Amino acid sequence: MSELFDERLADWKEQIDAELKNILDSLEYADEFKEILEYALFPGGKRLRPILLLEWHSVFSPPDEYALRYACGIEILHSYSLIHDDMPCMDNDDLRRGKPTVHKKYGEGKALLAGDALMDLAYRILNMPTPRGDASPFNLYPALCGDMGLINGQFIDLYGKINSLDDLVKMYRLKTGALIKLACVSGFMLGNNLNYQSGDKFVGSLFGNYVKSVITDRAAPEDERMIKYVMASGFGEAFGCAFQLYDDITEYIAGEKLSETSALKFIDLEEAKIALNNHLNDAAKTLEIVGGDTEYLSEFLQKFVIV
Amino acid sequence: MSELFDERLADWKEQIDAELKNILDSLEYADEFKEILEYALFPGGKRLRPILLLEWHSVFSPPDEYALRYACGIEILHSYSLIHDDMPCMDNDDLRRGKPTVHKKYGEGKALLAGDALMDLAYRILNMPTPRGDASPFNLYPALCGDMGLINGQFIDLYGKINSLDDLVKMYRLKTGALIKLACVSGFMLGNNLNYQSGDKFVGSLFGNYVKSVITDRAAPEDERMIKYVMASGFGEAFGCAFQLYDDITEYIAGEKLSETSALKFIDLEEAKIALNNHLNDAAKTLEIVGGDTEYLSEFLQKFVIV
Predict the structure, then answer these.
(1) Which residues are CB-contacts of B72 (< 8 A; sequence separation ≥ 6)?
(2) How far apart are CA A62 and CA A192, in angstroms?
């Protein structure tokens, strides 16, 4: 089964890469600029976020071009954030996945513009119409990538005070967790042909509001679907924390210099392993409640177990 | 009449500023980060882009909250691009509208993040539902701010070759013109309750495609409306060129050091004035074809006449 799943992951990655290439080809940027965008997007990492979207989508629906396109939009958003975060004025990293970061290779000006272009491109893709004719989960994105997610998380990481594990988890929920959660929720929404329509997108707890708006939208609330929605969100939340701990633990075991924001600065290895496995178990529990064909998502979680 | 129009401009500006403040207040960023965003957005310049949207909207429809919100989205997009363009790795400017640029005041890391946050925020606002229940002109934005506009223009400005007035105009059409054109077209679309629906948003000439898609969308094409749409676009195109020339000429007359991309590097003052007035005349001609209550737009153009 595990080998089959590896093949499946490789197949997703191939599909994602092909679609990303299509998207780049369709742009009207100068060849030199497209080369920079391609450098940023390829070969890419494990493509975790788009794969999570596709796996959540697959639980409810056969694969389709909309889910694939949306998955690529998420990967592109992730990629923009990496380019900007790597820059000297932020994390100042020279290497990313074993090759020079975009600004190291092409200079800071082009890196800054490349990040801008990818954010813009991501929102173009994520806003494209789905079979329902409207931009499905798009409205969730800017808020959860902005003040309720990615950008706010990076701000706290760089300029906030992180004095405890609680502070750290709060930061990672924003910086890493929001996009992972979005991937899972988007897969769920696209797989169920759901849409988000509400004028009230500025205020309050976004997921809280979302749930309210889904309920309000329906004359007869479909409770079962609602529960599954909350489970997709909970899975993303739990896996986001697990993923960060997994990263910190493998870094620690490899003897690398710990970053200032490693969980291992606050807890020891055994505690970190216990926390990791607790989060993975929390994620697994959401799948039990969802039921149906969630085996692949279970296998996905298995990849992050450290004994 | 001109005094009345000045009052009208001041009133628009007041409304825009109040709405921008509302938008900032609604965000969940830390107070320090909100302060940076406020610093970037206030006191602002002449608010030309949002006012153009509101004036075009007013030709067809009484003022409403959607147009005002959309106008603020455009101003926020403009503001993100200024922050990033001013940074040392790009234009390296220390001053903007007489006060320190965002990175000079708060550091480069925070400036980079503030730009990201404003782009994200702009797309959140521009994608909000209108009375028609869908995101009206939003789909035009990312393409015309990305490879077919703003970002591509800045790339050409910094890294392209500008050897002639033609090259220069091409660059300015992208860097400055696209957003101005969008403001006019958005005002037209919101004022006429039009929407943009087409799967084909990647390729080809966007405005060409757009026109086709509007035609396709309608069983009986409304030719008159189509012509007005093209006029709004043409007005934006012509005024975008005029605005750039106006800037270059006033800079020249004030005896400031000419930038590398001043039109006065390629033509002399008299030629520049003729070109400016030709563009303003082109814009005025579109208004004749539109007809109706376009007096304020005519007055707007008058503000940029140099004799």
Answers:
(1) B16, B19, B20, B23, B50, B125
(2) 11
Facing residue for A129 by CB, picked from B111, B197, B203? B197
Name the closest residue on chain A to residue B152, using Cα atoms: A29
Distance from C-alpha of B243 to C-alpha of B235, rounded to nearest angstrom: 12
Residue of A nearest to B87 (CA): A109
pLDDT tens figures, B202-249: 222 334 444 444 444 443 445 677 778 888 989 999 999 999 999 999
Question: Which backbone phi and psi does B95 adopt, to 5 degrees?
Answer: -125, 145
- Chosen for mutation from A82, A116, A154, A205 (greatest number of chain B CBs closer than 10 Å) is A116
Say how far apart CA A207 and CA B120 lie, in whole Å: 18
Contact across the interface for B112 and A26, Cβ inside 8 Å = no
Residues in chain B within 8 Å Cβ distance of A110: 155, 159
Query: What residues have CB less than 8 Å from B59, skipping those under 6 apart?
Result: B187, B188, B191, B290, B292, B293, B294, B297
Tell me the pLDDT of chain B averaged across its residues.
88
Can you read off the two tokens belonging to residue B250? 């006033």
Phi, psi dihedrals of residue B61, rounded to the nearest 5°? -155, 150
Place of tokens 């206030």: B42
Residue range A258-292, pLDDT digits in tens = 888 899 999 999 999 999 999 999 999 999 989 88
- Residue written as token pair 């409403």: B64
Q: Coil, strand or helix: which one is A200?
A: coil
In degrees to the nearest 10, what's the CA dihedral of A21, A26, A28, A32? 20
Q: For residues B164 and B54, give the distance between their C-alpha atoms in angstroms, rounded to a whole number.
A: 35
Region of B99 please: left (phi>0), alpha (psi -120 to 50) or beta: beta
pTM here is 0.91
Torsion of Cα atoms, A222 then A223 then A225 then A227, to 10°: 160
* Cross-chain Cβ contact A152/B29 below 8 Å: yes
| Other residues' Cβ atoms within 10 Å of the Cβ of residue B15 | 18
Per-residue model confidence (pLDDT) at position B189? 87
pLDDT band at B133 (very low <50, low <70, confident <90, very high): low
Contact (Cβ atoms closer than 8 angstroms) between residue A169 and residue A240 = no
